[in-house]
Amino acid sequence: RSFMRHHGIAVKGIGINEVGSSSRQTNPGLIVWYLASLEEAGVDFAARACWQDDEPTTNNCRTPTLDGILTPQDLQPRAAYWAYHRYAEVKGELIYVVHDDAIAGIASLDHDARAVRLILGRNGNGASQSLIVLNNLDQVPWLAGHSLLNVSAYRIPNTGWAVLDSPILVNSIISVPMVNGSVTLEFGEFVAGDALSVDLVP
């Protein structure tokens, strides 16, 4: 954008027509990394690239598999499907996410549902135990005054080409304290290639 502004080129929007890598096209953790990078860069629209499926006679550019996130025979969801599905649910006001070399994510304040929603993807290695800190929650009008928030979380494991009927429940609704506007969440079994979906509500 700065290059184009410098050269007087008017741009209505920036789009990327193919996103992803053929060798890790079913990797939900990496998919979240791609999506987080696109959001952070302010890309206006993007499309998933398509490649050969694991089944040698199937090219996902020519089948109704949504570019391989569904199985070619019976159109059942793979882990990649759930990464995009959860991304679509992270709606409302996007909020800034500070990530490290292993984990990236996207988060939002869903004012209509009064929920904080986030999806995280682990691309790098490291300990499977993960610590997530959410700050300044007391600045959100519908969270101010609450000392406890209810948390639900699901893991999207990197199951590759296999069918994944649904994300795996990490914990049903539990209450966690909000201290000085901050909530700290700790999750285990969040390994490279996995995605993690979390909702917080008052």
Could you write a compact summary of the structure shown?
The protein has 202 residues and is α+β, with helices and mostly antiparallel strands. The chain has helices spanning 2-6, 28-41, 79-89, and strands at residues 15-19, 45-48, 93-95, 103-110, 115-122, 130-134, 148-156, 168-177, 183-187, 195-201. The chain has 3 helices and 10 strands; from the N terminus they run H-E-H-E-H-E-E-E-E-E-E-E-E.
Describe the structure.
Helices cover 15% and strands 32% of the residues. It is α+β, with helices and mostly antiparallel strands. A six-stranded antiparallel beta sheet has the order 3-4-5-10-7-8. Strands 1-2 form a two-stranded parallel ribbon. Strands 6-9 form a two-stranded antiparallel ribbon. Helix 2 packs parallel to helix 3. The longest helix is centred in the first third of the chain and has 14 residues. The N and C termini lie far apart (39 Å). The model has no long low-confidence stretch (mean pLDDT 93).
List the helices and strands and how they pair.
Elements: H1 2-6, E1 15-19, H2 28-41, E2 45-48, H3 79-89, E3 93-95, E4 103-110, E5 115-122, E6 130-134, E7 148-156, E8 168-177, E9 183-187, E10 195-201
Parallel strand pairs: 1-2
Antiparallel strand pairs: 3-4, 4-5, 5-10, 6-9, 7-8, 7-10
Helix pairs in contact: 2-3
